[in-house]
């Protein structure tokens, strides 16, 4: 079976999926503002289902995640999400490793 050649888009999408999975793991209890983060997770899941990759849409989702973080009143959760927000930005900059 032939291996698929990974493109920069494939790498970015895979990295974003990984960040989203980590965000889900961080939600281990209820907190004030949780509904905004959960709504954002639903939106990013819909975006990840699309075959095409429009970086502008993902950057807009990153901006929306920042808005959800700002609406989170729990300081501990806000800090955790802020780390993920940074990781999401790094995921969007990923490229295929050169051999």
Characterization of the model:
The chain is mainly alpha-helical and 99 residues long. It has one domain (23-92). It has helices at residues 8-26, 34-49, 55-70, 75-92. Helix 1 runs antiparallel to helix 4 (75-92). The chain is elongated. The two termini are 21 Å apart. The model has no long low-confidence stretch (mean pLDDT 93).
What is the rounded Rg?
15 Å
Shape category: elongated
Query: Order of SSEs, N→C?
Result: HHHH
Low-confidence blocks of residues: none
Gap between N and C termini:
21 Å
**Class from helix and strand fractions:** mainly alpha
The helix count comes to: 4
- The residue-averaged pLDDT reads 93
Kindly estimate the percentage of residues that lie in beta strands according to DSSP: under 5%
Largest sheet properties: none
Compute the number of strand runs: 0
Give the total of domains: 1
The helical percent reads: 55-70%
């Amino acid at each position: 079976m032939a291996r698929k050649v990974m493109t920069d888009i494939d790498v970015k999408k895979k990295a974003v999926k990984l960040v989203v999975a980590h965000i889900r793991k961080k939600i281990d209890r209820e907190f004030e503002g949780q509904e905004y983060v959960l709504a954002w997770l639903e939106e990013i899941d819909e975006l990840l289902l699309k075959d095409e990759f429009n970086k502008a849409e993902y950057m807009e989702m990153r901006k929306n995640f920042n808005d959800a973080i700002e609406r989170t009143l729990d300081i501990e959760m806000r800090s955790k999400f802020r780390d993920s927000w940074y990781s999401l930005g790094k995921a969007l900059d990923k490229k295929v490793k050169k051999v």
